[in-house]
Specification:
The complex is a heterodimer of chains A (about 130) and B (about 150). Chain A is mostly helical. Chain A is built from seven helices and no strands. Chain A has one domain. Chain B has one domain. Chain B starts with a helix and ends with a helix.
Amino acid sequence: MSKFFSFLFTGLVAVVALSSFNFSSFSTIKQDSTFEIPDNINAIFKQSCFGCHNSDSKNTKAKDKMMIDKLTSLKKSKLASKLNKIVKELKEGEMPPEKFAAKHPERVPSKADKNTLIEWAKEAKSDL
Amino acid sequence: MLKKILAALAIIFILIQFIPTSLPEVRDNNPGDLLKNNEVPANIVTLLHNSCYDCHSNETVYPWYSYIAPVSFLVNRDTRKGRKHLNFSEWQSYSRDDKAEALDDLTEEVKEGEMPMKIYPIMHAKARLSDEDREALVSWAEDFADRLYE
């Protein structure tokens, strides 16, 4: 019986050892995208957009449209779509929504910040 | 009393027929159409035609009742809105990113069951999408979008 347990134990140790092996190097190879969000852009996102557009958001409509924290893990075609939306919505003044802006005027991006976002998104999508 | 209400409704029905509504124009010759310029599998062509093209192309087929108010108001609005969001007849004039966005939206809306709009398949049995149809459309759209960026 003790033989059986020691066998079980070695098996368990082997499984734990294998599963803790670091596979992260493999996944970084798979993700060959060089897409990163610069700090100044992230700051504007955080200030004005992230509150609704994040993967833990309770605002499902906003969440379904875009999750800013997931942007860097999207494949090219999806990322292009999201960046395209950023440009359009900001240009047309659709975002942030009027109701939100009225409630949180301090979160509305300045004209300059909006332009910074638009120019960044345009550039980023042209690189895809 | 009931008679009066019915009479009033009948009068309203007749009167609203005189409110001018011009349904969006139908054009059959669309050189920039998605299906004319791209290789799309036959089953997808059928799905797009049956479930999407009435509102998302210039080839709208208007049933007789779509000329009668108040249905005409609905059809008018939905067709205009549909074409504005995505018009497959003008696909070739879209930028690559606009195409990607349209295909991204298509996958979301079809997956979530938001498209076709609930009211549409009631009168258009052919437009009803099975789960398999939805999967087929979504995977075609994903694939098509990916190929734009290869």
